[in-house]
Design a protein that fits this description.
CATH class of the largest domain: Alpha Beta
CATH architecture of the largest domain: 3-Layer(aba) Sandwich
CATH topology of the largest domain: Rossmann fold
Shape: elongated
Number of strands: 20
Radius of gyration: 24 Å
Distance between the termini: 28 Å
Largest sheet: 8 strands, mixed
Structural class: alpha/beta
Number of domains: 2
Strand order of the largest sheet: 11-10-7-12-15-16-18-19
């Protein structure tokens, strides 16, 4: 799976309770196609034993500096990327001071590339001036740092100190492994999820969109180095944790307002949200009672956000529309929509096909470009489809 397939990842596991998450990180990396070599510190082995990591990675765990005279040099050269998770206060202090007294710290000092660090510790240890100074030093050395997160800690306390979840670490590691891309430094706006149009104080008109496709595109664009703005409808799924600029909306009107602001200086818009076509003409502020005998709901057209987006974006902004069509005639309808919206690409999918559409992790899409050429992709994970869509949209980016 891009960009992990065939890549070599060195995973350092230090002594902290968060080491149990590192086992899941090793599993996810291996499943994504990476070769994973684990270096386990003496403290780390007290929390998760080497047998666990060997079973997950299929490689012997390295623990001792004395297992080979040049093993610390060889592993640093071997790795395409290095991640330390958990990165304890002790390990980070040693790295900041240039101390190398075990296999992990010696390898980190000798490695050609900087390591991605995922701190994990008690909140008071994290907030201590010495730790903050060390983190600042490590950032100045070029080590990217993800987390820590705020939440409950092992000691029953609450605060910053939780290690970032494996999903977030994977995203940041993927950004390090991603080859140079024309998306790097671009401003990308993505819409995701449904819109809810209120009928009364408790009811709404909506659809079954989960937001997965839009979230996948936002994550893939961020991984390629883009500055991503995610305009997110009301979904049960959490946005990708690496996306910092998430603008939560509910109605089509609110999404339109968010887009007007987000599209300033945007290089691309991916309109993956399933925006309502209609909204109630006169939504009620109270709850409509059954005894009221309502037999119909008067509706009016909701704002056509893709049609108005062109007026809020620059002439060079790449516009990618999405079309959900059922049965025969779907492609012809999508082509008409692409012309009406003046989009560079339109992505068509049919939710009636098993494994496609709402609420599932896979999709089969047809991508139609401005020349009229249509390409139907095999059914694949939405995360993989996102990369395929980005590859084709990249062709329309203006030259640097």
């Amino acid at each position: 799976m891009r960009p992990f397939e065939g890549r070599r990842v060195l995973l350092g596991v230090a002594g902290g309770i968060a080491a149990y998450k590192s086992a899941e990180l090793a599993r996810r990396l291996t499943q994504s196609g990476s070769e994973v070599q684990v270096i386990l510190t003496r403290g780390g082995a007290r929390f998760v034993g080497p047998t666990t990591f060997e079973a997950l990675t299929g490689r012997p765990v390295r623990e001792s500096l004395w297992e080979g005279a040049l093993s610390h040099i060889d592993m640093g050269r071997w790795a395409d990327a290095i991640v330390v998770a958990p990165a304890t206060a002790d390990v980070m202090a040693k790295m900041a001071a240039g101390i190398a007294d075990d296999l992990l710290t010696t390898t980190l000092l000798a490695a050609r590339d900087r390591a991605l660090l995922a701190p994990a510790m008690n909140t008071r240890m994290y907030e201590h001036p010495a730790t903050q100074r060390n983190i600042g030093t490590l950032r100045s050395f070029g080590h990217p740092i993800v987390g820590p997160a705020y939440g409950e800690l092992a000691e029953g306390e609450v605060g910053f100190g939780r290690m970032a979840e494996p999903e977030e670490i994977l995203a940041h590691l993927g950004r390090l492994l991603e080859p140079e891309s024309r998306w790097r430094g671009r401003r990308v706006v993505v819409t995701a999820g449904p819109t809810w149009e209120p009928v009364d104080a408790v009811r709404f008109l909506g659809n079954r969109s989960s937001g997965r496709m839009g979230h996948a595109i936002a994550g893939a664009a961020w991984r390629r180095g883009a500055e991503v703005v995610l305009v997110n409808g009301p979904t049960e799924m959490s946005p990708p944790p690496e996306i910092e600029d998430v603008r939560q909306v509910e109605t089509a009107e609110e999404m339109g307002a968010a887009l007007r602001d987000a599209l300033l200086d945007a290089d691309a818009l991916f309109m993956a949200a399933a925006v309502a076509d209609f909204r109630p003409s006169k939504p009620r502020d109270d709850k409509i009672r059954r005894s009221g005998g309502m037999t119909s709901i008067a509706v009016q057209s909701a704002p056509d956000l893709m049609a108005t987006a062109k007026g809020n974006a620059s002439d060079d902004c790449v516009m990618v529309a999405f079309a959900l069509e059922l049965g025969e005639g779907g492609e012809a309808s999508a082509r008409r929509k692409m012309q009406e919206k003046r989009a560079h690409l339109i992505v068509l999918n049919d939710p009636s096909e098993p494994g496609s559409g709402f609420g599932v992790e896979t999709n089969r899409v047809t991508i139609i470009d401005a020349s009229g050429a249509a390409e139907t992709l095999p059914q694949m994970l939405k995360t993989q489809a996102a990369d395929e869509i980005l590859d084709r949209a990249e062709r329309y980016l203006p030259s640097d």
